[in-house]
Amino acid sequence: MRQQQCAAIILFALIIASSLTSFGCYSCMSRRVNEDMNRALALTMQEQQSDVICQDTIRTFNSHLQIADLKGKAILAVDARGKRFKAYAHCSEATIFSLSDQRPAILMWSISFLWAMYMWYRRQQGKANMLPLTTIENGFGGLTYSETEGLFYTADGKTVELTPMQQQLMEMFYKSPTHSLSKKEICDALWPKKPDASDTLYTLIRRLKPVVEQHSQLKIESNRGKAYQLKIN
């Protein structure tokens, strides 16, 4: 779960960085275009010495533009709202965007896309690897058990690492309707040929307890050393 959150945060950061990079490239070009148009218009009006816009005005204006790709795309107009006519240059946002160097932004967007695809792939892999799980009483103590795999899983889907003996004992607890086992049941199942396996069982229980408590909300309780029960902590 934490890995998924970190991956989502990284994707969000990449998207923000890509957007800011794209906007920064656009803003930089917008300033250049406005400066170039204003300079070209000032030179044109100075040469023409008139606010009247004609074909010659447009031709002269384009000749003064330093951004070659801007020629023919910038629009000259006259503002007649005031007492005096005022010529001004205008360029569409689409034109400015097409002129801006979006390569850094494209690179960032590509990285964002690849990261999103990687997240999707990992998610699909996770779904594919998830076999049907048989839960212990619908998620008993936050622990699930896959009979197909013979593995125990934590609430967030991680495998609980158990030794072979710990695995057998946990399966016995799972298969018991009350999740309780007598000392004799355990010893007969795990050490059938051993006359007295009390010490071995005690060691097994002692080492299994912290593993169970670390990965679930369960604990193993002893009933006067004669029986053991898996209970919700």
Helix content: 55-70%
Number of domains: 2
In percent, how much strand structure appears in the residues?
Answer: 5-15%
Residue windows where pLDDT falls under 50 for at least 5 positions: 131-138
Shape: rod-shaped
Rounded to an integer in angstroms, the radius of gyration calculated over CA atoms is 37 Å
* Count of extended strands: 8
Protein described:
Strand 3 and strand 4 form a beta hairpin. This protein is α+β, with helices and mostly antiparallel strands and 233 residues long. 55% of the residues lie in helices and 14% in strands. It contains 7 helices and 8 strands; from the N terminus they run ααββααβββαβααββ. A 3-stranded antiparallel sheet has the order 3-4-5, with no helix packed on it. Strands 6-8-7 form a 3-stranded antiparallel sheet. A two-stranded antiparallel sheet has the order 1-2.
